[in-house]
């Protein structure tokens, strides 16, 4: 009788053992990062043995006193064949159809959140077009997987649907820049791509930051962690990934931030890399597009130069290793639209950055960038860093977007002419002795200078200080 009672008690204990619990970022259809060790973590019974099985890998460990565990899969090559990932501790959790490939996190405000469904309704733009609504609904790419963060990941919610294959209705609900990025990357690398998206419309950069110290007007205060950092970003770490995409800044530009935005962006890059314990993770961002900020009805008064100087604040983070950005001066049909439709171009250009800089694929990823400006007599001679990529003037024989100023600092419109396919000569009848030059330095400036790859020239000004108008 005692033996029977013992067996029954043992059986009840075994069957009652709770399943291990893993964060919401793990699920069916997920993509694990290739060529890197892959952490798998969660909660089990305190002191319980935990086993992890994936393919031919078997990893074992023991949950800590608080029940937490973390096991590490060895680095793996890409694999398009779905496999099951088993996490065993008393009971078994099985994640099905798991691929191995490239994983990226895209984040920001409304222009990154901008969905494929919305993009499909505005697919036809002046310069190019994306997928229309019918094509969006018909997308079916089993090599692309999508993880959309809809709510705080620290709380269970049926709004977070987990990883999904790239098919209806999930494609339509996903970030258009993120999806077009994955589409370009997957077609060029021919490996699975997993995209995670966490964006909030209208958000400033501050809610995406960790707790940090701020010194202002000789006062030091401690800023708590932002709610989007704690709820949408922190719970994703340390899920193995390749890098970050960032499309944000319009809200902070409307606040006329400059140095403070540079500092915030540097902190964001550093803190996100710290979360994933990898100081080399690529961080690629979007330089915000032309818009009439000076006409916006805000508490802070802006002018037509506010946007260019904000872009310069964005660009100051480019001294941080493994950062790069794309230019969007040509991706607006109407400067009164804060949400231009060219999300297919945004995704493609970001992918070109990754192909060139992360994957060493032969791909031009940047437009003409001014290297030196030399003033002589009535002209300015402008040379470029990468002339081998070409200097292409669209729809005209002369280049628009230049301005020249004399020693008085007053700028006038100027025109540029390409010489010998190597440099540009800029002049203005209103400036007899030029001493300063600007290019694409107004909020609505959309110059017509590109390279052979179709990428626009970068905004520029001589010197780094604001000059009086």
From TrEMBL:
Q: Which UniProt keywords apply?
A: Hydrolase, Signal
Question: Which regions span the lipid bilayer?
Answer: none
Q: Which residues form the signal peptide?
A: 1-18
Biological-process GO terms, alphabetical: carbohydrate metabolic process
**GO molecular function terms noted in the UniProt entry:** sialate O-acetylesterase activity
Q: Which positions fall inside the Sialate O-acetylesterase domain?
A: 102-351
Origin superkingdom: Bacteria
Query: What protein does this entry describe?
Result: Sialate O-acetylesterase domain-containing protein
